[in-house]
Specification:
The complex is a heterodimer of chains A (114) and B (114). With 114 residues, chain A is an all-beta fold. Helices cover 0% and strands 53% of the residues of chain A. In chain A, strand 4 and strand 5 form a beta hairpin. The N and C termini of chain A lie far apart (37 Å). In chain B, the strands form 3 sheets. In chain B, strands 2, 5, 6, 10, 11 and 12 form a 6-stranded mixed β-sheet that branches. In chain B, strands 3-9-8-7 form a 4-stranded antiparallel β-sheet, with no helix packed on it. Classes of the chains: A mainly beta (114), B mainly beta (114).
Amino acid sequence: KAGVTQTPRYLIKTRGQQVTLSCSPISGHRSVSWYQQTPGQGLQFLFEYFSETQRNKGNFPGRFSGRQFSNSRSEMNVSTLELGDSALYLCASSLEMGAGDTQYFGPGTRLTVL
Amino acid sequence: AQSVTQPDIHITVSEGASLELRCNYSYGATPYLFWYVQSPGQGLQLLLKYFSGDTLVQGIKGFEAEFKRSQSSFNLRKPSVHWSDAAEYFCAVGRNTGFQKLVFGTGTRLLVSP
């Protein structure tokens, strides 16, 4: 079974632009979560989607948004990019949304904002 | 709210020696606990998880972890380290109800010396 895939793997953008990252979960998984990883803040939860609905959101500004499609694939969008948005963005999928359901991570998208 | 502390930022171990990585958590109820490993430029790979039952949990690659409720700890161990174990290790805690959000520790970077 294929793992979680994320595209693109690397992105370079300039301040003020917007970006869209994509995540395809493991086949059969219905929940997708997004995390931001930076050297300074570590791994931080962005949001979780289940059945095309955002179920939980971390403490990030409204510039960060996402969505989930009927096939469980998910996208996240960051508008008006800032230098501090440079990070590794990780997507994780799990079978359901239940507590303790194991999350499997993709390889991440490395975003660099210049 | 949950929190996780990994007190060791870096650890150096000789190849063939034993390893113990420390993890302390804060959560008001019995948590779900995880250890993930991240190699450079890669996503997170699940090593093992604890939900309930036996407090000694076996994982992949010869790792094990022990849940100690009285010490709020979930330390990761390996009896004999291989050079390929050099990576960053993250402990994470999840809630036992509701949403999927994982709270991660700051990570411990393991260096393996010959």
